[in-house]
Recover the amino acids of this structure.
Protein backbone atom coordinates (compact mmCIF):
# COMPACT_ATOMS: atom_id res chain seq x y z
CA UNK A 1 0.00 0.00 0.00
CA UNK A 2 1.43 3.41 -1.01
CA UNK A 3 0.54 6.37 1.16
CA UNK A 4 0.41 9.98 -0.05
CA UNK A 5 1.25 12.47 2.65
CA UNK A 6 -1.29 15.02 1.45
CA UNK A 7 -4.13 12.49 1.72
CA UNK A 8 -3.13 11.43 5.24
CA UNK A 9 -2.92 15.11 6.20
CA UNK A 10 -6.45 15.61 4.86
CA UNK A 11 -7.67 12.80 7.14
CA UNK A 12 -5.83 14.25 10.16
CA UNK A 13 -7.36 17.66 9.42
CA UNK A 14 -10.85 16.18 9.08
CA UNK A 15 -10.57 14.37 12.43
CA UNK A 16 -9.62 17.63 14.13
CA UNK A 17 -12.65 19.39 12.67
CA UNK A 18 -14.98 16.57 13.76
CA UNK A 19 -13.66 15.91 17.25
CA UNK A 20 -12.41 19.35 18.31
CA UNK A 21 -14.86 21.64 16.57
CA UNK A 22 -17.80 19.24 16.83
CA UNK A 23 -18.59 19.55 13.12
CA UNK A 24 -20.65 16.96 11.25
CA UNK A 25 -18.46 14.33 9.55
CA UNK A 26 -20.26 14.41 6.18
CA UNK A 27 -19.99 18.22 5.97
CA UNK A 28 -16.29 18.16 6.86
CA UNK A 29 -15.51 15.48 4.30
CA UNK A 30 -17.50 17.28 1.62
CA UNK A 31 -15.52 20.47 2.28
CA UNK A 32 -12.16 18.69 2.33
CA UNK A 33 -12.85 16.85 -0.93
CA UNK A 34 -13.86 20.11 -2.61
CA UNK A 35 -10.60 21.75 -1.51
CA UNK A 36 -8.53 19.86 -4.07
CA UNK A 37 -10.10 19.30 -7.48
CA UNK A 38 -7.06 17.32 -8.65
CA UNK A 39 -7.76 14.34 -6.40
CA UNK A 40 -9.12 11.39 -8.34
CA UNK A 41 -11.90 8.99 -7.29
CA UNK A 42 -9.45 6.70 -5.51
CA UNK A 43 -7.90 9.55 -3.49
CA UNK A 44 -11.34 10.82 -2.52
CA UNK A 45 -12.42 7.32 -1.52
CA UNK A 46 -9.26 6.93 0.61
CA UNK A 47 -9.95 10.17 2.52
CA UNK A 48 -13.67 9.60 2.99
CA UNK A 49 -13.53 5.91 3.92
CA UNK A 50 -10.62 6.24 6.36
CA UNK A 51 -12.12 9.29 8.06
CA UNK A 52 -15.52 7.62 8.49
CA UNK A 53 -13.98 4.36 9.72
CA UNK A 54 -11.75 6.13 12.23
CA UNK A 55 -14.77 8.06 13.53
CA UNK A 56 -16.72 4.80 13.77
CA UNK A 57 -13.96 2.98 15.66
CA UNK A 58 -12.83 6.00 17.71
CA UNK A 59 -13.24 4.51 21.18
CA UNK A 60 -11.59 1.25 20.17
CA UNK A 61 -8.65 3.13 18.61
CA UNK A 62 -8.23 5.32 21.70
CA UNK A 63 -8.17 2.22 23.90
CA UNK A 64 -5.58 0.56 21.67
CA UNK A 65 -3.41 3.71 21.68
CA UNK A 66 -3.21 3.45 25.50
CA UNK A 67 -2.89 7.23 25.63
CA UNK A 68 -5.36 9.84 26.78
CA UNK A 69 -4.85 12.31 23.94
CA UNK A 70 -3.00 10.61 21.10
CA UNK A 71 -2.14 12.60 17.97
CA UNK A 72 -4.59 12.07 15.10
CA UNK A 73 -1.70 10.79 13.01
CA UNK A 74 -1.11 8.09 15.67
CA UNK A 75 -4.76 7.10 15.47
CA UNK A 76 -4.46 6.87 11.68
CA UNK A 77 -1.37 4.66 12.11
CA UNK A 78 -3.18 2.39 14.59
CA UNK A 79 -6.15 2.07 12.26
CA UNK A 80 -3.89 1.08 9.34
CA UNK A 81 -2.05 -1.42 11.53
CA UNK A 82 -5.31 -3.04 12.67
CA UNK A 83 -6.35 -3.30 9.01
CA UNK A 84 -3.11 -5.25 8.41
CA UNK A 85 -1.45 -2.49 6.36
CA UNK A 86 2.25 -1.69 6.66
CA UNK A 87 3.01 1.91 7.61
CA UNK A 88 5.23 4.15 5.46
CA UNK A 89 8.71 4.98 6.77
CA UNK A 90 7.76 8.50 7.87
CA UNK A 91 9.37 9.99 10.98
CA UNK A 92 5.98 10.66 12.63
CA UNK A 93 5.37 6.90 12.62
CA UNK A 94 8.80 5.93 14.05
CA UNK A 95 7.38 5.39 17.54
CA UNK A 96 4.46 3.22 16.42
CA UNK A 97 4.83 -0.38 17.61
CA UNK A 98 2.59 -2.72 15.59
CA UNK A 99 3.15 -5.64 17.98
CA UNK A 100 1.97 -3.59 20.98
CA UNK A 101 -1.06 -2.40 19.00
CA UNK A 102 -2.10 -5.96 18.20
CA UNK A 103 -1.73 -6.98 21.87
CA UNK A 104 -3.88 -4.05 23.05
CA UNK A 105 -6.48 -4.99 20.44
CA UNK A 106 -6.75 -8.50 21.90
CA UNK A 107 -7.58 -6.87 25.26
CA UNK A 108 -10.10 -4.51 23.64
CA UNK A 109 -12.02 -7.41 22.09
CA UNK A 110 -12.99 -8.66 25.56
CA UNK A 111 -15.03 -5.53 26.43
CA UNK A 112 -18.22 -5.00 24.34
CA UNK A 113 -18.42 -1.20 24.59
CA UNK A 114 -14.76 -0.93 23.54
CA UNK A 115 -14.85 -3.67 20.89
CA UNK A 116 -17.99 -2.14 19.36
CA UNK A 117 -16.74 1.40 20.00
CA UNK A 118 -19.67 3.01 21.76
CA UNK A 119 -20.05 5.36 24.77
CA UNK A 120 -20.80 3.70 28.15
CA UNK A 121 -24.23 5.29 28.51
CA UNK A 122 -25.35 4.22 25.05
CA UNK A 123 -24.25 0.64 25.63
CA UNK A 124 -26.29 0.65 28.83
CA UNK A 125 -29.40 2.11 27.14
CA UNK A 126 -29.14 -0.35 24.23
CA UNK A 127 -28.77 -3.35 26.54
CA UNK A 128 -31.63 -2.17 28.74
CA UNK A 129 -34.05 -1.56 25.86
CA UNK A 130 -33.09 -4.33 23.43
CA UNK A 131 -31.96 -7.09 25.82
CA UNK A 132 -30.36 -10.00 24.02
CA UNK A 133 -30.89 -8.42 20.59
CA UNK A 134 -28.50 -5.58 21.46
CA UNK A 135 -25.25 -7.48 20.74
CA UNK A 136 -26.23 -8.29 17.15
CA UNK A 137 -27.80 -4.91 16.38
CA UNK A 138 -24.82 -3.05 17.80
CA UNK A 139 -22.42 -5.15 15.77
CA UNK A 140 -24.47 -4.67 12.58
CA UNK A 141 -24.63 -0.89 13.18
CA UNK A 142 -20.83 -0.84 12.86
CA UNK A 143 -20.79 -2.30 9.36
CA UNK A 144 -20.38 -0.09 6.30
CA UNK A 145 -23.82 0.62 4.82
CA UNK A 146 -24.58 -0.30 1.20
CA UNK A 147 -25.59 2.45 -1.23
CA UNK A 148 -29.23 1.92 -2.19
CA UNK A 149 -31.15 3.87 -4.83
CA UNK A 150 -34.89 4.43 -5.10
CA UNK A 151 -36.00 4.47 -8.72
CA UNK A 152 -38.22 7.46 -9.49
CA UNK A 153 -41.17 5.72 -11.10
CA UNK A 154 -42.53 9.08 -12.32
CA UNK A 155 -39.68 9.12 -14.84
CA UNK A 156 -38.37 5.61 -15.43
CA UNK A 157 -38.54 2.01 -14.24
CA UNK A 158 -36.09 -0.25 -12.42
CA UNK A 159 -34.95 -2.29 -15.43
CA UNK A 160 -34.36 0.79 -17.59
CA UNK A 161 -32.42 2.57 -14.83
CA UNK A 162 -30.33 -0.49 -14.08
CA UNK A 163 -29.37 -0.68 -17.75
CA UNK A 164 -28.62 3.04 -17.99
CA UNK A 165 -26.38 2.95 -14.90
CA UNK A 166 -24.57 -0.14 -16.19
CA UNK A 167 -23.68 1.85 -19.34
CA UNK A 168 -22.00 4.36 -17.00
CA UNK A 169 -20.05 1.54 -15.32
CA UNK A 170 -22.31 1.41 -12.23
CA UNK A 171 -23.49 -2.12 -11.47
CA UNK A 172 -26.58 -2.62 -9.31
CA UNK A 173 -28.79 -5.42 -8.01
CA UNK A 174 -32.55 -5.15 -7.50
CA UNK A 175 -33.68 -5.79 -3.91
CA UNK A 176 -36.41 -8.43 -4.18
CA UNK A 177 -38.52 -7.16 -1.27
CA UNK A 178 -38.68 -3.55 -2.52
CA UNK A 179 -40.05 -2.82 -6.01
CA UNK A 180 -38.14 0.43 -6.54
CA UNK A 181 -34.79 -0.37 -4.90
CA UNK A 182 -31.43 -0.96 -6.57
CA UNK A 183 -28.31 -1.64 -4.47
CA UNK A 184 -24.89 -0.71 -5.83
CA UNK A 185 -22.45 -3.63 -5.99
CA UNK A 186 -19.59 -1.26 -5.12
CA UNK A 187 -19.39 2.36 -3.96
CA UNK A 188 -19.44 4.88 -6.83
CA UNK A 189 -20.27 8.56 -7.04
CA UNK A 190 -23.77 8.30 -8.47
CA UNK A 191 -24.44 12.05 -8.19
CA UNK A 192 -22.30 12.70 -11.29
CA UNK A 193 -24.49 10.56 -13.54
CA UNK A 194 -26.95 11.95 -16.11
CA UNK A 195 -29.57 9.65 -14.59
CA UNK A 196 -29.28 11.46 -11.25
CA UNK A 197 -29.23 14.93 -12.82
CA UNK A 198 -32.40 14.00 -14.72
CA UNK A 199 -34.15 12.89 -11.52
CA UNK A 200 -34.36 9.19 -12.38
CA UNK A 201 -33.41 8.14 -8.84
CA UNK A 202 -32.70 9.27 -5.30
CA UNK A 203 -30.22 7.71 -2.87
CA UNK A 204 -32.43 6.25 -0.12
CA UNK A 205 -31.74 3.34 2.20
CA UNK A 206 -33.88 0.23 1.87
CA UNK A 207 -35.28 0.68 5.40
CA UNK A 208 -36.42 4.19 4.56
CA UNK A 209 -38.08 2.88 1.37
CA UNK A 210 -40.41 0.70 3.44
CA UNK A 211 -42.09 3.72 5.06
CA UNK A 212 -44.02 5.52 2.27
CA UNK A 213 -45.80 2.33 1.06
CA UNK A 214 -47.06 1.81 4.64
CA UNK A 215 -49.34 4.84 4.15
CA UNK A 216 -51.18 3.00 1.35
CA UNK A 217 -51.68 6.26 -0.59
CA UNK A 218 -53.82 6.40 -3.75
CA UNK A 219 -53.70 8.95 -6.58
CA UNK A 220 -56.06 11.81 -5.77
CA UNK A 221 -55.77 11.58 -1.99
CA UNK A 222 -54.96 14.47 0.31
CA UNK A 223 -51.74 13.58 2.14
CA UNK A 224 -49.65 15.45 4.71
CA UNK A 225 -45.97 14.71 5.33
CA UNK A 226 -45.65 16.66 8.57
CA UNK A 227 -41.91 16.30 9.32
CA UNK A 228 -40.83 16.33 5.70
CA UNK A 229 -37.28 17.67 6.09
CA UNK A 230 -35.60 17.74 2.68
CA UNK A 231 -38.26 15.39 1.38
CA UNK A 232 -36.79 11.89 1.06
CA UNK A 233 -40.15 10.32 1.82
CA UNK A 234 -42.24 13.13 0.29
CA UNK A 235 -40.74 12.34 -3.11
CA UNK A 236 -41.49 8.66 -2.64
CA UNK A 237 -45.11 9.47 -1.65
CA UNK A 238 -45.51 11.68 -4.74
CA UNK A 239 -44.35 8.82 -6.96
CA UNK A 240 -46.78 6.38 -5.28
CA UNK A 241 -49.57 8.95 -5.79
CA UNK A 242 -48.55 9.17 -9.47
CA UNK A 243 -48.33 12.94 -9.06
CA UNK A 244 -52.11 13.14 -8.52
CA UNK A 245 -53.93 14.58 -5.52
CA UNK A 246 -52.46 16.95 -2.97
CA UNK A 247 -49.32 16.36 -0.95
CA UNK A 248 -48.50 18.95 1.73
CA UNK A 249 -44.89 18.77 2.95
CA UNK A 250 -44.28 20.61 6.22
CA UNK A 251 -41.37 21.23 8.55
CA UNK A 252 -40.18 23.73 11.14
CA UNK A 253 -37.01 24.47 9.15
CA UNK A 254 -37.45 26.55 6.02
CA UNK A 255 -34.06 25.70 4.48
CA UNK A 256 -35.04 22.03 4.40
CA UNK A 257 -38.22 22.88 2.53
CA UNK A 258 -36.14 24.91 0.02
CA UNK A 259 -34.05 21.80 -0.61
CA UNK A 260 -37.23 19.73 -0.89
CA UNK A 261 -38.59 22.02 -3.62
CA UNK A 262 -35.30 21.74 -5.53
CA UNK A 263 -35.40 17.95 -5.35
CA UNK A 264 -39.09 17.89 -6.31
CA UNK A 265 -38.30 19.87 -9.48
CA UNK A 266 -35.52 17.41 -10.41
CA UNK A 267 -37.88 14.50 -9.74
CA UNK A 268 -40.68 15.93 -11.90
CA UNK A 269 -42.97 16.05 -8.85
CA UNK A 270 -45.86 18.46 -9.37
CA UNK A 271 -48.40 17.68 -6.61
CA UNK A 272 -46.34 18.89 -3.63
CA UNK A 273 -46.81 22.15 -1.79
CA UNK A 274 -44.52 23.08 1.09
CA UNK A 275 -45.60 24.77 4.29
CA UNK A 276 -43.49 26.09 7.15
CA UNK A 277 -45.10 25.08 10.45
CA UNK A 278 -46.23 28.09 12.46
CA UNK A 279 -48.41 28.55 15.53
CA UNK A 280 -51.78 27.75 13.94
CA UNK A 281 -50.76 25.55 10.97
CA UNK A 282 -51.76 22.24 12.54
CA UNK A 283 -55.05 23.52 13.94
CA UNK A 284 -56.06 24.91 10.55
CA UNK A 285 -55.53 21.49 8.96
CA UNK A 286 -57.69 19.65 11.50
CA UNK A 287 -59.35 16.52 10.00
CA UNK A 288 -58.33 17.41 6.43
CA UNK A 289 -55.99 14.56 5.48
CA UNK A 290 -56.62 11.04 4.23
CA UNK A 291 -53.08 10.16 5.24
CA UNK A 292 -50.56 11.77 7.59
CA UNK A 293 -46.90 10.77 7.85
CA UNK A 294 -45.07 11.69 11.08
CA UNK A 295 -41.42 10.87 10.37
CA UNK A 296 -40.46 12.42 13.68
CA UNK A 297 -37.07 13.80 14.77
CA UNK A 298 -35.19 11.06 16.66
CA UNK A 299 -31.84 9.90 18.00
CA UNK A 300 -30.83 8.45 14.61
CA UNK A 301 -29.59 5.31 16.36
CA UNK A 302 -30.92 3.18 13.50
CA UNK A 303 -28.68 4.90 10.95
CA UNK A 304 -25.35 4.84 12.79
CA UNK A 305 -23.83 2.87 9.88
CA UNK A 306 -24.13 6.06 7.81
CA UNK A 307 -23.59 8.67 10.52
CA UNK A 308 -21.09 7.12 12.94
CA UNK A 309 -20.21 10.53 14.42
CA UNK A 310 -23.66 10.92 15.95
CA UNK A 311 -22.89 8.30 18.64
CA UNK A 312 -20.23 10.67 20.04
CA UNK A 313 -22.53 13.69 19.86
CA UNK A 314 -25.89 12.63 21.25
CA UNK A 315 -26.25 12.73 25.03
CA UNK A 316 -28.72 11.07 27.43
CA UNK A 317 -30.43 14.44 28.04
CA UNK A 318 -31.03 14.77 24.30
CA UNK A 319 -32.78 11.39 24.24
CA UNK A 320 -35.16 12.45 27.01
CA UNK A 321 -35.90 15.73 25.25
CA UNK A 322 -36.45 14.19 21.82
CA UNK A 323 -38.88 11.61 23.26
CA UNK A 324 -40.97 14.48 24.60
CA UNK A 325 -40.93 16.23 21.20
CA UNK A 326 -41.94 12.98 19.49
CA UNK A 327 -44.88 12.47 21.79
CA UNK A 328 -45.97 16.10 21.45
CA UNK A 329 -45.92 15.75 17.65
CA UNK A 330 -47.80 12.44 17.73
CA UNK A 331 -50.55 13.63 20.05
CA UNK A 332 -50.94 17.08 18.46
CA UNK A 333 -50.41 16.44 14.72
CA UNK A 334 -52.63 13.33 14.67
CA UNK A 335 -55.64 15.65 14.74
CA UNK A 336 -54.99 16.43 11.04
CA UNK A 337 -56.22 12.93 10.06
CA UNK A 338 -59.81 12.69 8.76
CA UNK A 339 -62.16 10.14 10.36
CA UNK A 340 -61.40 6.88 8.56
CA UNK A 341 -57.96 8.17 7.60
CA UNK A 342 -54.56 6.78 8.44
CA UNK A 343 -51.53 7.98 10.38
CA UNK A 344 -48.02 6.57 10.09
CA UNK A 345 -45.59 7.27 12.93
CA UNK A 346 -41.96 6.53 11.97
CA UNK A 347 -38.47 6.83 13.45
CA UNK A 348 -34.96 5.91 12.39
CA UNK A 349 -34.23 4.61 15.87
CA UNK A 350 -33.72 1.08 17.14
CA UNK A 351 -34.95 2.09 20.60
CA UNK A 352 -38.49 1.06 21.65
CA UNK A 353 -38.66 4.14 23.91
CA UNK A 354 -38.75 6.32 20.77
CA UNK A 355 -41.00 3.97 18.83
CA UNK A 356 -43.25 1.15 20.15
CA UNK A 357 -43.57 2.74 23.61
CA UNK A 358 -44.62 6.09 22.15
CA UNK A 359 -47.36 4.46 20.10
CA UNK A 360 -48.56 2.40 23.08
CA UNK A 361 -48.75 5.53 25.22
CA UNK A 362 -50.67 7.33 22.48
CA UNK A 363 -53.18 4.48 22.14
CA UNK A 364 -53.69 4.40 25.89
CA UNK A 365 -54.08 8.14 26.30
CA UNK A 366 -56.30 8.57 23.23
CA UNK A 367 -58.73 5.94 24.57
CA UNK A 368 -60.82 4.02 22.02
CA UNK A 369 -60.21 6.48 19.20
CA UNK A 370 -57.44 4.82 17.22
CA UNK A 371 -56.51 1.28 16.18
CA UNK A 372 -53.02 0.02 15.53
CA UNK A 373 -53.12 -1.55 12.07
CA UNK A 374 -49.50 -2.61 11.52
CA UNK A 375 -46.18 -2.22 13.29
CA UNK A 376 -42.96 -2.90 11.37
CA UNK A 377 -39.25 -2.72 12.09
CA UNK A 378 -36.32 -2.97 9.74
CA UNK A 379 -33.11 -4.20 11.31
CA UNK A 380 -29.44 -3.83 10.39
CA UNK A 381 -28.78 -7.25 11.99
CA UNK A 382 -31.73 -9.15 10.50
CA UNK A 383 -32.17 -7.77 6.99
CA UNK A 384 -29.17 -5.50 6.45
CA UNK A 385 -31.39 -2.39 6.19
CA UNK A 386 -31.01 0.69 8.36
CA UNK A 387 -33.02 0.48 11.59
CA UNK A 388 -36.42 2.10 10.99
CA UNK A 389 -39.69 1.73 12.88
CA UNK A 390 -43.15 2.45 11.49
CA UNK A 391 -46.64 2.06 12.91
CA UNK A 392 -49.81 2.56 10.95
CA UNK A 393 -52.82 3.78 12.97
CA UNK A 394 -56.38 4.11 11.74
CA UNK A 395 -58.83 6.72 12.99
CA UNK A 396 -62.38 5.33 13.11
CA UNK A 397 -65.13 6.93 10.97
C1 LIG B 1 -36.35 12.34 10.60
S1 LIG B 1 -36.31 13.94 10.00
C2 LIG B 1 -37.31 13.86 8.58
C3 LIG B 1 -36.69 13.20 7.38
C4 LIG B 1 -37.55 13.31 6.16
N1 LIG B 1 -38.90 12.87 6.39
C5 LIG B 1 -36.97 12.53 5.00
O1 LIG B 1 -37.47 11.48 4.63
O2 LIG B 1 -35.98 13.00 4.43
C6 LIG B 1 -37.33 14.82 11.10
C7 LIG B 1 -37.71 16.20 10.67
O3 LIG B 1 -38.60 16.75 11.64
C8 LIG B 1 -38.39 18.13 11.69
N2 LIG B 1 -38.99 18.63 12.94
C9 LIG B 1 -38.42 18.87 14.14
N3 LIG B 1 -39.33 19.32 15.03
C10 LIG B 1 -40.52 19.36 14.37
C11 LIG B 1 -41.84 19.75 14.72
N4 LIG B 1 -42.13 20.17 15.95
N5 LIG B 1 -42.79 19.69 13.77
C12 LIG B 1 -42.51 19.26 12.53
N6 LIG B 1 -41.28 18.87 12.13
C13 LIG B 1 -40.30 18.93 13.03
C14 LIG B 1 -36.90 18.30 11.55
O4 LIG B 1 -36.57 19.59 11.08
C15 LIG B 1 -36.57 17.18 10.56
O5 LIG B 1 -36.52 17.69 9.25
Amino acid sequence: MRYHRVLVEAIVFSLGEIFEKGRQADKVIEQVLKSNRKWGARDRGFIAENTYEIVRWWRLLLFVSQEERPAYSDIFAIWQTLKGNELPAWTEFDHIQPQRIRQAYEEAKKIRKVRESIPDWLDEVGALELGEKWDDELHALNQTAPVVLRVNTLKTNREALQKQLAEDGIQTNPLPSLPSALALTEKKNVFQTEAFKNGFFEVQDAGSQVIAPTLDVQPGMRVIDACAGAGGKTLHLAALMQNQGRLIAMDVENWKLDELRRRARRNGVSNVETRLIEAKTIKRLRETADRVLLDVPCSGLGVLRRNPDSKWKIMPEFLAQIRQTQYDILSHYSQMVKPGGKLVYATCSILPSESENQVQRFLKEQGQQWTLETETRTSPARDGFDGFYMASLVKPC
Summary: The chain has three domains: 5-118, 148-203, 206-394.
